[in-house]
Amino acid sequence: MRLPILVFDIETLTDLKVGAHLYGLDLEQADLEQALAKLRRQESGMDFQRIPLHEIVCISGLWIDENGTMRLFSFSQEHYSEAEILSKFLSIFDKREPTLVSWNGSQFDLPVILFRAMYHGLSATSLFDQGESNQQKRYNNYQNRYHQRHVDLMDVMAMFNGRNFQKLDDIAQMLGYPGKRAESGYFVPEYVKQQQWQQLTSYCEGDVLNTWLIYLRWLLLKGQILVTEHQAWVQATIQYLHTQPQQQTFLEVWRETAQRTAFSAADFPIQSS
């Protein structure tokens, strides 16, 4: 395991201003949102907007340093503009070069970060360098699909075959982790509209935690950590989450979902009375 590690996830909304500009629309906000959704369905048959039209409202991460110390964090539009969120996140790579871990980060999160950073006129040399500034990144960089500087778990677990892509929620629950914690639907727009920032960051951090736990299982599969090391990392994660009030529901649901498989049941041993 190469430390430090940064597991991350982003949450987004449709950027109505950019959408109106690209499509030449002059409408009220409610009508604009509907018009952009309709146009997107006509283009692709789905509501999910094109990458450049995603405005970042939250970036969450789990940082694991060289000593194994964990820190869960979120930058959201409760306190920062999108440009400030991006600046804070990108500054991490100026100071350190962690192993980056994501779920679908290669196809969604990093491209969104790239376009939105360009939109705001930001620089992100350390994250997007492919050898122009640092020769060592010529063949091992955060964009390279087949190396380990950025591990997109959805991609590597599909053996780089798009037909095998799976949902984070499904794999997390299959392995005995909380997944979306019984939430159905996508609530991010409503969280932002109602300014329910704690629910937003908790949701985003939950995806980060699920990704981290799946990453540990991936390292075990590849023989990069032993079973005893996997158990130690899982227990360290549980102990850390006990100190995070916002993730107590995640911890409680994990205690239940862990019992679904014999292997994950060991995460929470049954206490004898």
Automatic annotation (TrEMBL):
Superkingdom, according to UniProt? Bacteria
A GO molecular function annotation here is:
nucleic acid binding
Q: Using the record's annotation, list all stretches that form the Predicted 3'-5' exonuclease PolB-like domain.
A: 47-255
Spell out the InterPro entries in the cross-references.
3'-5'_exonuclease_PolB-like (IPR019288), RNaseH-like_sf (IPR012337), RNaseH_sf (IPR036397)
Q: A Pfam family matched by this chain, by name?
A: DNA_pol_B_exo2
Listed name of the protein? Predicted 3'-5' exonuclease PolB-like domain-containing protein
